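Protocol check, entry for the methods section draft. Step 1: assemble the input record (protein sequence plus ligand SMILES). Step 2: submit for complex structure prediction. Step 3: store the structure tokens unaltered in the notebook. Ligand used here: zinc ion. Step 1 record:
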Amino acid sequence: MSRRQVFLTAIIAGLAWSGAGLKRQTAIGKGPQKNTNAVNYGRPFEPPARPAFIPLPPGRIEPAGWLRDWALTARDGYTGHMEEVDPAFRQAWAADYRMTGDRLSYWDRGAWPYEGGGYWLDGMIRLGYALHDDSLLSKAKARLDVVVNNMNENGILFMWWLDKNNPADVEAAGKQAGGEAQAWPIWANGLMGRALAAYYAGSGDHRVLRALEMAYGGDRGWSRKGWALSNLWPAFEAYTWTGNRNIGEALTGLFADNAVKTPEKSVPLYESWYNRMPDERLPWFRQPDHGVHFNESTIPWALGSLWTGKPEYLKAPCRWYEIIERGDDGMQPHGVPVCDENSGPTGSLRGTETCNVAGYMWSQITLLRVGGQGVMADRVERAFFNAAPAVVSRDFKTHVYHQTPNRITRNLPDGHAFLYSTTHGPLCCTAALNRFVPNYVTHLWMATYDNGLAATHYGPCKVSALVADRVPVELECRTDYPFNDFIDIAVKPARDATFPLSFRIPGWCANPHITVNGSLHRAAAGANGFVRIERLWRRGDTVHLRFPMTVRVRTGHDNSAADTPYATVSYGPLLFALAIPDTVDANTPDDAFNWNYALDLQGDKPGYGIAVERRPMPGKWAWQLDAPLRLHVRARSFDWQPVARKALPTEPVARDEASPFQPERVLTHLPAKPVSAGTVPEEIRLVPYGCTKFRVSMFPVTDRPAGVMPAARGP
Ligand SMILES: [Zn+2]
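Step 3, stored output:
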């Protein structure tokens, strides 16, 4: 079948299915229709099933305290200065960088700036709104306006310089190149779509909405091309604002053609993988995928649950994220799965690509928005407080490509990907790290359909939003969380008004404590993990949240060498590590520092005998080693020779895609057996993992806690 035939078949299938889809929507009683109710942040056109939460427009939540310090550092580091970092960022979606032909089809032949530009501009516009920073906003808008102002009816998605009537342009944009470039430009367009959706949500500028509608409403063919999945959410956003019939029919046809499948059903990896339930019999790392593709390809199927009203579209991606958490099947203690390009088992030297910190956070934020389960927000916090700060230097000007739970010397793990550098090739991670802070800040609170607000994540901030019958309210959240365990919220409605506020109870917190104006609020959290308080709120009301943190010690096996025991220490949402001080820069450790310790914990004692030390927050937050929260832990030194041992499993983790990083060559340096507890115990001081550049966070253990460890999982 020729490309043209495939294309025509897809269009015909789309037309046919659009009828079937509409019937189905009618059957559940709520077809996509104009929303006439008075939901403050409802969209004019709603899908058949409503999401749990509605994101507030960028700019409604301003960071404060330590979070503001870090946001300003991000602005002054990478985000406000990307053109100085690499020429590719000057080219990204620039008026004079109009790639055509074969070079457009391959990221490594010149098309890369379209992906990188999408990541960066998405982060920059959101950070500009969050900080109310006019110069950052001007810079982001100037770049995005090149696309907005040049859009025309003959372009292909946001590539305004292409002509959809020119077969050569159609071929270049949608070329299927067998695993290397599955319609690469189409994928990159989805990232631009995400940036423009944020631009419109923040500005209400109808030129921007017109650009989104023109890209996704011009025809429906885009939805069937290779990596088109990144475009589904921005297309959906455009639909909810415009009700564009072509967009609606593209989504209806796509979901109708892609029912959720059982694990046995073979589906094309780059088209439909995550509308398939995982094979429960296999660990996550045995169902391989490229990490970025995994995170970006799960969330389109969650959208299917809104569009079709069928919950299985949400259940499938949620289950994939649940199986990562099993045993040591892939989740790293810093909160983002192993993705040293491809999925792999948990391991002290296994890498996690920096792109995946942003991608994993975004996937959980999106699943939270759709399904409303607090566990997804727990995961966002874990990634944001641990993995995100670890990958960038404290000045936000250098970064690693892969982070590892343990980094004990400049050369262990070995390779440039593990060093802090201004850029890494490819430039994906250098671009994607601009999304960490704005995506966290702009989703600290979300709106609810009952005209209330929900505290979905925690951190110091100020919220200005509408509640009840369009009553403006300010919420001032004063806290050092997660470096302390309480949050004071001043509620300031413009006038007395009855509305609900919902507060997420972190999954790790057994005894939350909520008071309203000093009175204890006794209601337990609902099944979604949120406590909902609906009352008449008056200016001057206060909510005090306290989430007592407890020390958690997790023991397991480095699954890149299945016999190797380890232990990690967490407190609240924070992972703790023995920091090896970095001296002149993030690549230079203090060689005199002793890091050769095994944790020596008495697993049967509550609190494990670990003492918590609190100190005042520093004047300016910079993820400094001199951390305000420290744990004192018993350990024993031993003659730790970090012998490189060949990893298990011996088979390559991924078979479907060539990876520059060879999973079968991963080494572990942890001792194969528990260390004898014969030496004299010492007390070592741990700090939050996010503060460290060199560290041990997956510790060897003495034979004392080894008896309580679970059995090793075989490969
Ligand atoms: Zn990357």
